[in-house]
């Protein structure tokens, strides 16, 4: 078993940001990944995907966008190249194709077991990406339906001929529904809780406003309901140079049929909740609250005269879709599960989980000495899981590792002195 100061598990943006800080500190570490650098961006995204954040918001420790389109939006392939260059820039010690199978506590550290050997590490940083979630309801859908999660979707031509039921209306579900409809498919969209924002507001990109107004920097301690904050779906938004909005009104204009949440299936028929109208009303209220924050910021910062005036958002009048649907009779051949992702650590044998399986932590620091987590949604700040936001928690974790090491060395010196006094 090899011995090392720190093992970082995951070579995505969060793991690489942590590695960059550890490298700057001169700390001996290794970054393990089940695949390649930025594996999920390589193999779990559809072809037309672009980031929701503009290029200037791809800031990582010691690295930022230097291309000619700071206001553009990277494709997944471009981001893969961006992260690979970042890893090369500081010689990140990444071991690819090294899946972790077990992390167990030992005296003064952890044993990290992989398919390519084991390490004894004083510190372990969990930076692996989330796993896809598909509800158990999927098992009760008609057996002849083709089902796939968004992480497996690539393009319309990949799917069998026929209509598509998309379950979930956050960024992924809305984007895929739009793409499929533009490709001539019949699309039924089962709409759950979501938050919609305009791509541009008062003449500026919405992400610029969210950063400037402090929305992205709000911490979990400021949230009235931390659990709800951490389970919020991604924004119903699309990256792209056109500045085109992606919301239910735009989808309705395309001819996407909308209905409430998918709540049941009996083998031949699927059933939807009668909640489309209240779901849309709740989403519009959240949109209005966020835009009000931006308007107040613009006023307080003296920007009101420098930007465009506020324009009322379009009120959506969506026709309520079917309450039940027999897919075969309706020509629906495919279900796309846009039901998100969740972090899961089935190989972690350290009791740091709450009843729902989430790692208990504060700013990425767990109660288990030397065990850290980074890159999760709203870990500390609203943008903790954003490419642009992982640097804050990575910095905090690296600082804590450094201070803990100093404290451990001081303890060992004191123990040595005491032992000498007893001789």
**CA-based shape:** globular
Q: Main β-sheet: number of strands, strand sense, barrel status?
A: 7 strands, mixed
Mean pLDDT, all residues: 93
What is the CATH architecture annotation of the largest domain? Answer: 3-Layer(bba) Sandwich
Order of helices and strands: EHEHHEEEEEEEHEEEHHHEEEHEHEEEH
Helix content: 25-40%
Distance between the termini: 34 Å
Number of strands: 19
- The H-level CATH homologous superfamily of the largest domain, spelled out, is FAD/NAD(P)-binding domain
Radius of gyration: 24 Å
Report the CATH topology name of the largest domain: FAD/NAD(P)-binding domain
Point out poorly predicted stretches: none
Task: Walk me through this protein's architecture.
The chain is α/β, with parallel strands linked by helices and 423 residues long. It folds into two domains: 2-130 and 343-417, FAD/NAD(P)-binding domain (3-Layer(bba) Sandwich); 134-339, FAD/NAD(P)-binding domain, CATH 3.50.50. Helices cover 29% and strands 19% of the residues. The strands form five sheets. Strands 1, 2, 3, 4, 5, 6 and 19 form a seven-stranded mixed sheet that branches. It has a five-stranded parallel sheet with strand order 8-17-9-10-13. β1, α1 and β2 form a beta-alpha-beta unit. α1 (13-24) crosses α10 (390-422). It is globular. The two termini are 34 Å apart. The mean pLDDT is 93.
List keywords for this structure.
423 residues, alpha/beta, FAD/NAD(P)-binding domain, 2 domains, seven-stranded mixed beta sheet, five-stranded parallel beta sheet, 10 helices, 19 strands, 29% helix
């Amino acid at each position: 078993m090899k011995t090392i100061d720190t093992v970082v598990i995951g070579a995505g943006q969060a793991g690489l940001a942590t590695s960059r800080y550890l490298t700057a500190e001169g700390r001996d570490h290794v970054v393990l990944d089940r695949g390649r650098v930025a594996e999920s961006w390589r193999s779990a995204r559809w072809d037309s995907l672009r980031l929701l954040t503009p290029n200037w918001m791809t800031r990582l420790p010691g690295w930022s966008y230097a291309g000619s389109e700071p206001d553009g939006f990277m494709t997944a392939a471009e981001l893969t190249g961006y992260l690979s260059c970042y890893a090369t820039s500081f010689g990140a010690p990444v071991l690819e194709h090294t899946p972790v199978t077990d992390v167990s506590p030992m005296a003064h550290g952890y044993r990290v077991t992989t398919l390519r050997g084991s390490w004894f590490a004083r510190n372990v940083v969990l930076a692996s990406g989330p796993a896809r979630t598909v509800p158990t309801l999927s098992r009760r859908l008609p057996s002849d339906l083709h089902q796939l999660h968004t992480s497996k979707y690539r393009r319309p031509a990949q799917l069998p001929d026929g209509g598509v039921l998309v379950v979930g209306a956050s960024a992924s579900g809305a984007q895929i529904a739009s793409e499929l409809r533009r490709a001539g498919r019949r699309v039924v969209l089962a709409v759950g809780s979501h938050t919609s924002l305009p791509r541009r507001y008062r003449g500026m990109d919405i992400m610029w406003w969210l950063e400037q107004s402090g929305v992205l920097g709000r911490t979990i301690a400021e949230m009235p309901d931390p659990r709800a904050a951490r389970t919020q779906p991604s924004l119903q938004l699309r990256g792209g140079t056109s500045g085109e909005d992606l919301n239910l009104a735009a989808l309705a204009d395309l001819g996407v049929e909308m209905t409430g949440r998918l709540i049941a299936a009996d083998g031949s028929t699927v059933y939807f909740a009668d909640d489309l109208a209240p779901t849309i009303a709740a989403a519009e209220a959240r949109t209005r609250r966020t835009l009000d924050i931006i308007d107040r910021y613009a006023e307080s910062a003296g920007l009101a005269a420098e930007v465009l005036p506020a324009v009322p958002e379009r009120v959506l009048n969506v026709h309520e879709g079917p309450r039940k649907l027999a897919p075969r009779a309706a020509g629906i051949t495919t279900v796309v599960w846009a039901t998100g992702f969740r972090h899961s650590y089935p190989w972690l044998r350290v009791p740091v989980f709450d009843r729902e399986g989430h790692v208990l932590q504060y700013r990425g620091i767990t109660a288990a000495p030397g065990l850290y987590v980074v890159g999760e949604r709203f870990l500390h700040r609203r943008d903790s899981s954003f490419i642009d936001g992982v640097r804050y928690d990575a910095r905090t974790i690296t600082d804590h590792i450094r201070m803990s090491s100093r404290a451990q060395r001081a303890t060992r010196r004191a123990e040595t002195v005491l032992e000498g006094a007893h001789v």
